[in-house]
Design a protein that fits this description.
This protein has about 270 residues and is α+β, with helices and mostly antiparallel strands. The chain contains 6 helices and 10 strands, in the order βαααβββββαααββββ. A hairpin with an 8-residue loop joins strand 7 and strand 8.
Length: about 270
């Protein structure tokens, strides 16, 4: 008698989850924060940023818990080592349970995003569409990105083009794991195409690699970008709506460092 056929690993895939952020945090979201996350929450001077953090951390925990088949309070989120210096300020990762999934998190005014990939790395960035600093392109964009932006008349279209370049650049650097820590003018994101294959910068641990970079609108007021490996399978978009259950037991539990924003400014 032959035994059951060995199960195949799941096909590679990348998910982008997004959620809305209210004006004030939901008590059920606050109940999902670890003691260290509660301490971090108290350090925010702006209530809007505190709400972004609390809402997004709870959303990430619920999404991952559903994916991994466990209670949200059992999911522990930390940071991977930096691929350049091995310091504990690299991209966010799942410390518990052990899983091969890669994640990336971004949040801005009114909206948050989580990238989840079975491939080797993922990066996401989301921005609220608003007027941008006119000096940004000259200090952060490649010649091709500058030409793309300057080909548009001043106004809303040009501002959106600037944010398209920025979100793509930040998503790419998050996927590489280094963040906004180098000369951004040398990072080319090919913004003329919504989806394009680009080369990410190398790190101490890895040579430059190819990434598939996609831009998408999430409603009328937000622009997002996702960077993933070309062999990471299809990209699917999902909206997360919290359906919190009973508050978790507040027993002491181990905690680790939080994934800090990888940008020069707060997200």
């Amino acid at each position: 008698m032959t035994g059951p056929a060995p199960s195949r690993p799941p096909e590679p895939a990348t998910q982008l989850w997004w959620w809305t952020i209210p004006d004030a945090p939901d008590p059920a979201d606050l109940d999902l924060l670890t003691p260290r996350e509660q301490q971090r929450l108290g350090k925010y001077s702006a209530p809007r940023l505190a709400t972004q953090f609390a809402t997004s951390r709870a959303a990430v925990r619920r999404i991952l818990a559903a994916r991994l088949g466990m209670p949200p309070e059992s999911v522990l989120i930390g940071q991977a080592p930096c691929p350049d210096c091995a310091g504990r300020h690299g991209p966010p990762n799942i410390l518990r349970p052990r899983t091969p999934l890669h994640i990336s998190v971004s949040h801005t005014r009114g909206l948050g995003c989580l990238g989840v990939s079975t491939g080797d790395g993922v990066g996401v960035d989301v921005e609220f569409l608003r007027p941008v600093d006119p000096t940004v392109p000259g200090t952060a964009f490649s010649p091709a990105e500058l030409a793309y932006v300057n080909a548009l008349a001043p106004g809303t279209d040009r501002q959106t083009a600037v944010q398209k370049c920025w979100t793509r650049k930040e998503a790419l650097l998050k996927a590489v794991g280094v963040g906004i820590s180098r000369d951004l003018r040398g990072v080319e994101t090919k913004p003329a195409s919504d989806t394009a294959t680009v080369s990410g910068p190398g790190t101490t641990a890895r040579a430059p690699r190819s990434w598939l970079l996609s831009s998408l609108r999430l409603g009328p007021a937000h622009l997002a970008a996702v960077a993933r490996r070309p062999d990471s399978g299809p990209l699917t978009i999902h909206r997360h709506t919290a359906e919190p259950g009973p508050a978790p037991d507040r027993h002491p539990r181990p905690d680790a460092g939080d994934p800090r924003p990888v940008r020069a400014r707060a997200t």
